[in-house]
Amino acid sequence: MPPPSLTRFVGLYASFPVEEDERKTEFLNGLLGLEGNTKFRRMETGLLLGKVRWLPFNQAKFPEVMRRLSSGEFDWLQLHTLRTLEITGPEWTEAFERPESVYIIWKSSTVNREGEKKTPREERFGDSGRVLVHYPIVRFDIDSESAFQARLMGYLHRAFVEQGLHYAFVNEGLWNYPIDMFGRDYRYDDTCERVPLLAFATDLHTYSYFSKERARGVFWANFLNPFHVERLGGVDRIVREFPRETVRDLGSGRFLLTAGPSPRTEDVHAVERYQRLREFLAPILLETPTQIEAEYPSQPPPDYPKDPWALKRILDRDIAKAKRAADDWTL
Q1: Long-range contacts of residues 199-202, Cβ cutoff 8 Å, at least 24 apart
Q2: Confidence of residue 317 (pLDDT cuts 50, 70, 90)
Q3: Which one, 161, 211, 322, 330, has the greatest CB density within 10 A?
């Protein structure tokens, strides 16, 4: 067992295309619907380039938050069942041993620099949103499907196709709160050659940008879009290479590959299954920041000024515009 300061959980990550008039909030609504009587206590919401605020969760006002997320007035939401995030690592660990705890992060911003062209990477990949959810480990059984897992996976099977998500995965998580919240996810680096664990840290925001074509790593449940499937050799190769119980054809050229009956495992053969899957997924894996920069070097838009002071004025203008739009919002 990990030391008390390390929190075990099961995490969900999903990336999805967003546009000015389409923020995929129906997907978030579906995830919230799985929570039943879960009582959220705090939320942080607003516009990332403008103003975000921590507020007590208010069920009566929450529909207005969802409306603003849907319209693009807001692009950020955090929900959690704790009274405050200003707690110690052991307190966070203790909270996530209770089945009613949950932590959700939602981001659905778009790039819109008025009168300026997009970068080559932006043109290729478009705008992507993301959602991260930390579920208590006790909602999942070891090497068998729990009732909550069945509901969650059933919803993801439908939503991945119906809502046209780019990519999604479910895996066991492990983090040292708050140290592992930020920066590179060294949990995955340390375990990817065995049974991988993930801290579900903030670097997933960077990877979400490329999820239209690439996968962050190998995980217990890997939801693949048609581009992924084609790059892996097509439907026939997937069906030929893996046992029927680990492959699910979701329709519309989309597939789910799993590494066992549950994200929690004590099976002595688990390492072999995960590593076989990792080898198969290698053509689409994007596992390190170095790999990102090597394959997709960052370039400015073709019309960006070379003068750094002119560039600063553009950035200051965009931030000031967003702040003016968000300065006085109330619920």
Answers
A1: 199/173, 199/174, 199/175, 200/11, 200/13, 200/132, 200/134, 200/173, 200/175, 201/175
A2: low
A3: 211
Structure tokens at 73: 């007035």
Return the ∠ at Cα 72 (arms to 70 and 77), rounded to 5°: 75
> Token pair 């490329």 is at which residue?
210
Tokens for 11, please give them. 């995490």
Q: What is the pTM of this model?
A: 0.90
Integer Cα distance of 208 and 168 in angstroms:
10
The token pair that represents 71 in the structure block: 């319209």
Residue 303 has pLDDT above 90, yes or no: no
Mean pLDDT (whole number) for 131-143 = 97
What does the pLDDT average to over 233-254? 93
> Beta strand 128-136 with 103-107: parallel, antiparallel or unpaired?
antiparallel
State the Cα–Cα distance between residues 5 and 175, nearest whole angstrom: 8
Cα–Cα distance for residue pair 69/197, rounded to 1 Å: 31
Percent of the chain with pLDDT over 90: 63
Q: What one-character-per-residue DSSP string does 227-239 give?
A: HHHHHTT-HHHHH
φ, ψ dihedrals at 314, nearest 5°: -65, -45
- pLDDT attached to residue 1: 47
- Delimit the domains of the chain by residue range: 6-326
